[in-house]
Amino acid sequence: MEKKFKRTTVTSALPYANGGVHIGHLAGVYVPADIYVRYLRLKGEDVMFVGGSDEHGVPVTQRARKEGITPQQVVDRYHKMIKDSFEEFGISFDVYSRTTSATHHKFASDFFRKLYDDGKLIEKTTKQFFDETTGTFKTDRDIVGECPHCHAEANGDQCEKCGRDLDPTELINPRSKENGAKLVLKDTTNWFLPLNEYEGWLKQWILEDHKEWRSNVYGQCKSWLDMELQPRAMTRDLDWGIPVPVEGAEGKVLYVWFDAPIGYISNTKELCESDPGRWGTWQQWWQQDDTRLVHFIGKDNIVFHCIIFPVMMKAHGGYIMPDNVPANEFLNLEGDKISTSRNWAVWLHEYLRDFPGKQDVLRYALTASAPETKDNDFTWAEFQARNNNELVAVYGNFVNRALQLTQKYYDGVVPACGELTDYDRQTIAEFKDVKLKVESLLDNFRFRDAQKEAMNLARIGNKYIADCEPWKVIKTDPERVKTIINISLQLTANLAIAFEPFLPFSSKKLYQMLAVEPLGWDNLGSTELLKAGHQLGKPELLFEKIEDDAIKAQTDRLERIKKENEAAAFKAEPVKKEVSFDDFEKLDIRVGTILSCEKVKKSNKLLKFEIADGLENRTILSGIAQHYQPEELVGKQVCFIANFPTRKMMGLESQGMILSAVNFDGSLSVITPQREVKPGCQVG
Question: Global pTM?
Answer without folding.
Answer: 0.85
